[in-house]
Design a protein that fits this description.
The longest helix has 33 residues. The strands form five sheets. Strands 7-10-11-12-13 form a five-stranded mixed sheet, with helices on both faces. The chain has a two-stranded antiparallel sheet with strand order 1-6. It has a two-stranded antiparallel ribbon with strand order 2-3. It is elongated, with a radius of gyration of 31 Å. It starts with a helix and ends with a helix. It is an alpha/beta fold and 569 residues long. The chain folds into two domains: 348 residues, no CATH class; 124 residues, STAS domain (Transcription Regulator spoIIAA).
Length: 569
Amino acid sequence: MSKRKHFFPIATALLAGIRKYNAHTFKDDLIAGLIVSLIALPLAMALAIAVGLPPQHGLYTAIVAGIAAALLGGSMTQVSGPTAAFVVIVAPIISDLGLHGIVWCQIIAGIMLVALGTARLGKLITYVPYPVTMGFTAGIGVVIGTLALNDFFGLGIAQLKGDYIEKVITIARHFPELKLPELAIGAVTLAAIAFFGKITDKIPSPVIGIALGTLLAWIFSHNGIAIDTLGTRFSYETAEGLKHGIPPYPPVFHLPTFAHDQLFSIPGYAEFKKLLGPSMVIAALAALESLLSATVADSMAGTRHNPNAELNGIGIANVLSGLASGIPATGAIARTSVNIHAGAKTPLASAIHALFILIYVLTLSPFINHIPMAALAALLLSVAWRMSHAGQFIRTIRIAPHSDVAVLVGCFGLTVFIDMVAGVTAGMILATLLFMKRISESTTSHITSKQTGYEEFHGQKLPAHVMIYHINGPLFFGTVEHALDQAEMIGSDVKKLIIDLARVPLIDMTGMVAMKDFLNAVAHDGRTVIVCGKKQVTDRIMRKIEGHRMEKSIHVMSSIDHALAEISK
């Protein structure tokens, strides 16, 4: 076995990037890291707040995962950190299990991701159908946009509980309580994000929007109008007592403990069972979004990522993020796009963006605390709009086949009204069933014989007692019935039957059993049966009938021409 197969795929992008690293490359990475950090800072806080945690937990994620995933992953320009896609699955976990639960979910999910990367299963993510990806992404966008309305309008709802419909009803009931100053801040921020995004790319529009929203909040505050900000809503404990805002401290690593399970006398057994399901969902979403983002980055930057190294990198990043009391992390398409447009050349750009966020936390916390909640809500609304891909969504419904539209709409609706797990699961099942239906329809059979009127093969006229049964397409559990539906046309007068499997590319166990039953039905009364096709297909069939009483009546030949030549002797 070669050394390459033993190689643990990790840090492949960093190793490739530093080979020709120089001062000019560092300058490009530094500028890109600075620009991305200005976007990531408010977004990381907004996402942490959206899942029900204080903003510093999102910052810790951006710092730790931003460095680890970049340095250990397989994408040259990917930026990783907290993303909006996780909000709909992380918020319920935190509501049920608290910070302790989400930390352990990340650690378990990170180990799963490393196992996937080590097993080199990164390519499997490409098998997720486009309607499923678009459906749950658009659904997440709708849910996030709805949740952001609370702070955008200044409704003051302490916690939005229940399913999606209940949340909408709660927002509608509190709508008369909206605060015009909060709405003004949110509207100015949102308008700035939308407007400046169209006229300039020198300064990221979210930075301009947050700055204008914060300025307007400062004006309101100095005129006696109370505004809800990070400093007024959140606080942290110190040796000197309670302080407001975000703590100006770096992330600290610590390993949480499992609760003791009295029934089995094993620490954490019952808790582990409770965490396993959510952990699998987090791992699946982290893998899917990271590899999709890395693929988008490749198309934009002309690079090529290593999917297995990317899984290992984001897996380790999630373990470290959990140890630092962060939230789940994955590749962020929007930040990655900004990183590329800003001129990033290597993974160090993403690591630099995380270091800038760390500097902001340590030195600028008193200023960050003045950011209004309505401005962060406006940022989430802009993210939700981008995630919805409304134009593509509508266009797909118009031009896509009905089966794909059904998958798209079903996945979207279940994501919104139940949760993302239900949406993705149902979408994948429906897409798989529709795929099997299409494949089954592509497997056909026909007969060449005097009885059918089509009695010539390659210009050679078949004798009356000879029949060729052609099967075209794969033989698996979804196609066998369709492939053998003309078996009743094989009359008793047929003495020589040729089974043409030349166009059967593969056969599974169900196909092998079906062929065994088929051959058992036709190989009788002295009839000779000849099976022709690819060796890997015919060998599997013959192994299945080995030792059976009909085996002596069945022969295998490489082609129909050879079979006809043998029959004519």
